[in-house]
């Protein structure tokens, strides 16, 4: 598998057509994650390839594309949130700001932004079957019991409700827990916040826990493979 090419014509978030690419990984994290040079290249692309207009990176652009695709909307997330009557009627819960998607999602009348870990994804305060859409980006890997978090998402979603999210995936290996490994943190070099500690490193079997949590219908979206994968699960 060759190095992915950072080619994208239009930003699916704002419709912009100019992009920048800056590496974001640092030596300590690369060593802890045990990444090969090829893996470093596509994860740097995932996190550091950005639209110069809205500043969203590849992972959140892919998340936006998954969301508009799910509702059959052919256009940017910006226009989707402003103009699509279906999404504007739905209760949309965003957990942690998904990079710079938040300013666009805030145009939705029933959008609410919550923060992890203040909102415990393993035991959410929402009633059963009360939410239409849940959205988060690179958050689940920081939750101690990620399967429980997915079960909770399924519990609070209405029948037919949507879960959209991203996680960093190393596609050439299997998922592993960091429970017995030295602490590793995402975010920025030298920042060791409790909510940035990595609980799980996802691999090619990332999809298993989604089905184990009770979801029966999932789809994947990639704008540049293998650098970007967004997950869409529906409560059937």
Task: Supply database-style keywords.
single chain, about 240 residues, Rossmann fold, six-stranded mixed sheet, 10 strands, about 20% strand
Summarize the structure.
The protein is of the alpha/beta class. 27% of the residues lie in helices and 19% in strands. The chain has one domain (65-234): Vaccinia Virus protein VP39 (Rossmann fold, 3-Layer(aba) Sandwich).
Explain this structure.
- The protein is α/β, with parallel strands linked by helices and 236 residues long.
- The protein starts with 18 loop residues before the first strand and ends with a strand.
- It has eight helices and ten strands.
- Strand 5, helix 7 and strand 6 form a beta-alpha-beta unit.
Model regions low in confidence, pLDDT < 50 over at least 5 residues: none
Question: How large, in whole angstroms, is the Cα Rg?
Answer: 17 Å
Structural class: alpha/beta
Helix-strand sequence = EHHEHHHEHEEHEEEHEE
Helix content: 25-40%
Number of domains: 1
User: What would CATH call the homologous superfamily?
Assistant: Vaccinia Virus protein VP39
Main β-sheet, spatial strand arrangement = 4-3-5-6-10-9
Give a count of the beta strands, DSSP E runs of length 2 or more.
10
The first-level CATH class name: Alpha Beta
The overall average pLDDT, rounded, is 95
What is the molecular shape? globular
Largest β-sheet summary: 6 strands, mixed
Query: Could you say what the CATH topology is called?
Result: Rossmann fold
Q: Supply the CATH architecture.
A: 3-Layer(aba) Sandwich
Strand content: 15-25%
Number of helices: 8
Note the gap between the termini.
Answer: 36 Å
């Amino acid at each position: 598998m060759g190095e992915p090419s950072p080619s994208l014509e239009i930003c699916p978030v704002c419709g912009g057509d100019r992009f920048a690419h800056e590496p974001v990984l640092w030596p300590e994290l690369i060593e802890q994650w045990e990444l090969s040079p090829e893996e470093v290249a596509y994860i740097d692309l995932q996190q550091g390839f950005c639209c110069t207009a809205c500043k969203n990176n590849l992972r959140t652009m892919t998340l936006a594309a998954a969301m508009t695709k799910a509702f059959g909307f052919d256009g940017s997330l910006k226009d989707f949130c402003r103009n699509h009557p279906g999404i504007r009627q739905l209760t949309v819960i965003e957990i942690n700001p998904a990079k710079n998607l938040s300013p666009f999602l805030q145009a939705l009348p029933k959008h609410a932004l919550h923060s992890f870990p203040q909102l415990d994804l393993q035991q959410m305060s929402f009633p059963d079957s009360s939410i239409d859409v849940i959205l988060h980006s690179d958050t689940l890997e920081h939750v101690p019991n990620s399967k429980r978090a997915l079960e909770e998402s399924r519990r609070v979603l209405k029948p037919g409700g949507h879960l959209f999210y991203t996680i960093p995936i190393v596609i050439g290996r299997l998922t592993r827990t960091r429970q017995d490994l030295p602490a590793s943190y995402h975010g920025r070099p030298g920042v060791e916040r409790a909510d940035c500690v990595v609980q799980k490193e996802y691999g090619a079997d990332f999809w298993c826990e989604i089905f184990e949590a009770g979801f029966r219908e999932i789809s994947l979206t990639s704008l540049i493979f293998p650098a970007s994968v967004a997950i869409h699960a529906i409560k059937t």
